[in-house]
Amino acid sequence: MDNNKQQDIKNQIFDLARLYFDMTFPAKQFECGKDYIPVSGKVLDSSELINSIDASLDMWLTSGRHAQLFERNLARFMNSRHAVLCNSGSSANLLALTALTSDKLGVQKLSPGDEIITVAAGFPTTVNPIIQNNLIPVFIDIELSFYNPSIESIIQAIGPKTKGIFIAHTLGNPYDSIAIREIADTHNLWFIEDNCDALGSSINDQLTGTFGDLSTLSMYPAHHITTGEGGCVFTNNPSLKVIVESFREWGRDCWCEPGKDNTCGKRFEWQFDELPFGYDHKYVYSHIGYNLKMTDFQASIGNAQLQKLQDFINKRKSNFNYLHQKMKTLEDHLLLPKSIVNSNPSWFGYPITLKPNCNFTRRDITTHLENSKIGTRLLFGGNLLRQPAYRTIERRQIGNLENTDIVAENTFWIGIYPGISKEMLNYSYDTIAKFVNSH
Question: Do 293 and 316 belong to one domain?
Fold first, then answer.
């Protein structure tokens, strides 16, 4: 088909898609008490639909040109040398930690029985890769209001078997990555930042996710940008980038892009251990890996989302600050969130902890909010060691995790994502304030 004719047909399809989107998903005026306020969600317009149709028309069903563009632009936004896309933030965490078990790292590799410092007040898939790789999680407590560990607790947790630190920036609120980077360098530890909830957060104007040897990002619909299901691993280390890609793609040794051959220029000239000389490099496996690639269809949506990312970040910060000023009237009963000096969080949600003097329980207030059409969430797993799946795992624990237990009993959070308007924030605050003041 003539290229001009082909593009004309595409443009007609895109115009119809734009019209369809506008007719099917019109803007709606918020009605207090009638419309539900979710804690999180995707913010889309017709550009995501058009991009996804463009990718579909290629009929290229795996990772391709849209993914390559998305990786380049994500790396550019993060000021990172490499971005490696995958199918979820949980997979990104698995890839980042598993990469550090590679024999290609020599004496620096993680081995079964090595210890990784993390927190119990977190999301399971920060901890799961530690367990899945036969490593030992070392659980430390957090500081209330910050919901991240203190630097002192990290130092206290370091032992003779400690080989790494793997902690999430809770709800987008940065921990002191500068100090942790220094600790990691001093003690020769790997440092992985789970940045899945914190895209756009910064410390001293440096983005979180750029301090660790590796960092991760989630692009589930709840997160700062979405590809539906999706994730990414970032690193400035070219060797780690190649290892992450290998684990992402079946464990192969070859680094050709899908559909490409002989990038190395000697596809049939390698010698690997017991394999015949010249064995096809596309079918040589240096790791026991997975298939965790992102499709072009998903990446095309990410490319549209990335154009709006800075606006999304600004809206999250604005929503947090607006709600926080109003919530200060309730500080006698509610512990409000705080961030460390010189940090600028791109908040994922607004966390609230009940103080001991409250005459109501968390269940009381969250039930009231849900009945009032205001979405709530707990702080992920609360204390993971009280969860059924983790009660018998091999681990080391520092202290009694007192604050983690307080979070498990008394903490919840509400939404401030870009789809939430000031009218919604006003209604959320008014509903909370009336409940607190009536008790």
Answer: no
